Amino acid sequence: MNMQTKNVNTHLTEIKDYFKVAISVDCVIFGFDNDELKVLLIESDLKEYRGKWSLLGDIVRPDEDLENAAYRVLLERTGLENVYMQQVHAFGALNRHPAGRVVSVAYYSLVNVEHIELKLLNNDLHWHPVKDILQKDMAFDHKDILNTCLERLRQQIIEQPVGFNLLPRKFTLRDLQNLYEAILDVKLDRRNFRKKFFAMDVLIDLNEEEEEVRHRPAKLYGFNAERYSQQKKKSLGF
Amino acid sequence: MNMQTKNVNTHLTEIKDYFKVAISVDCVIFGFDNDELKVLLIESDLKEYRGKWSLLGDIVRPDEDLENAAYRVLLERTGLENVYMQQVHAFGALNRHPAGRVVSVAYYSLVNVEHIELKLLNNDLHWHPVKDILQKDMAFDHKDILNTCLERLRQQIIEQPVGFNLLPRKFTLRDLQNLYEAILDVKLDRRNFRKKFFAMDVLIDLNEEEEEVRHRPAKLYGFNAERYSQQKKKSLGF
DNA sequence: CCAAAAGTGTTGCCTGTACACCCATGT
DNA sequence: ACATGGGTGTACAGGCAACACTTTTGG
Fold first, then answer.
1. What Pfam families does the record point to (chains A, B) (predicted)?
2. Which domain holds residue B216?
3. pLDDT by residue (tens digit) across A42-77?
4. Which of strand D's nucleotides are less than 7 A from any protein C-beta?
5. Torsion angle (degrees, nearest 10) of CA A213, A219, A224, A229
6. Are residues B172 and B83 in the same domain?
7. How far away is chain B from the Cα of A12, in angstroms, using its nearest Cα?
């Protein structure tokens, strides 16, 4: 075998290897319930990760782009469409997947848990408090992915009011503040918090109140999506 | 043309029978010269993009992770190691590559143009003012990638003093300000700019001055990398 | 001595933060 | 009536932005 041929063959083999990779998406689906930030997980079906929790993901199909794949996973698993979703990071460590080379693109999304609950029954999905799950092992490098997405979420909600996506259509200011306190793991001043959001001018006063609470009922607000998009640039700066 | 020097893009076409999906990295290499933000590009060798400019990228090999691939591209093309680099976004549109499905992970890096100049001679790389290149067509979706990375860079330098990576080891405050003004495309107040950076405490007074200028010479400063890492969290907030 | 850019402080404003009392409801 | 959380305003401090004159060098 002469040098030239050898080089060519070697190279072709290597080139073929280049295509033995797969692309997947992993979705970090955040919800907010019971004043806790939660994440939607499934038990891993790989024997290597028996009993460990896994994010929702799938291989990207030849006929769909990355975003489509992420939305598809979300739709298949939760039945939800038109959800807030954002690409966060690509994870490509060599041995991150036991079956071979799989590069995964992580997305995080924010959903209203109430919209999902019914569908959970036919499914093996479960909401987990993020604080708890971070103490445990997860499948693959999903702990890394979760941490990275959580970090991004924290950064995001102090820059833009994306937190609304986690709340029901009607909510109280206390709900909103609990959300921020849970995600950022801080205590915030009630008066200053209100001032900030009223100044942002993204709340719609629905002229309704809570009911069945044993204290003064709080007013209910909605989220003004139109004003939100105008105000994207403003920082919240906690 | 022998096999060794052939470009990967050519291989893609040749072996399209085996084709499934490939992962590549694309590097947006920023430099700062002549008071302009520049980006390092190469002329595309694909006939589809004849005469158009392309980012520096390559297929990710089976034995390297994403970051390694990006550093390899940088090393091969510029001879530089230990460069500031950051992953920005994964691009996976269906038809972004004419030879087939290639998902590309974009990285941006900041280099000191002086460290590269000599090596450019043996190469078909060229620095382009970012402002100019954004007016022109680019190969693939590289304009998107460039825009996304530029946006990230802008965000980054107002949060952390990463701009130092674009400057020589010794620089004046005017250099630093020019850098910020060029990247952010704004005019900044000289006194406030100085105050801000002195307060940040990341500048080392080298007790040296410019020479051969026909006006009062400016003092030269260095960058205190140690203090920088402590102060990462502080915002600059322009 | 002229041109050109370097260097230097103060003030007002705006934003963030700390903080305490009265109000409406259910029990 | 009481317990519980809802709703509200003010004062202080720190950070940001606006602004003009003197200094040093080369020509």
1. NUDIX, WHD_NrtR
2. 162-230
3. 999 899 999 999 999 999 999 999 999 999 999 999
4. 3-10, 15-20, 23-27
5. -80
6. no
7. 8
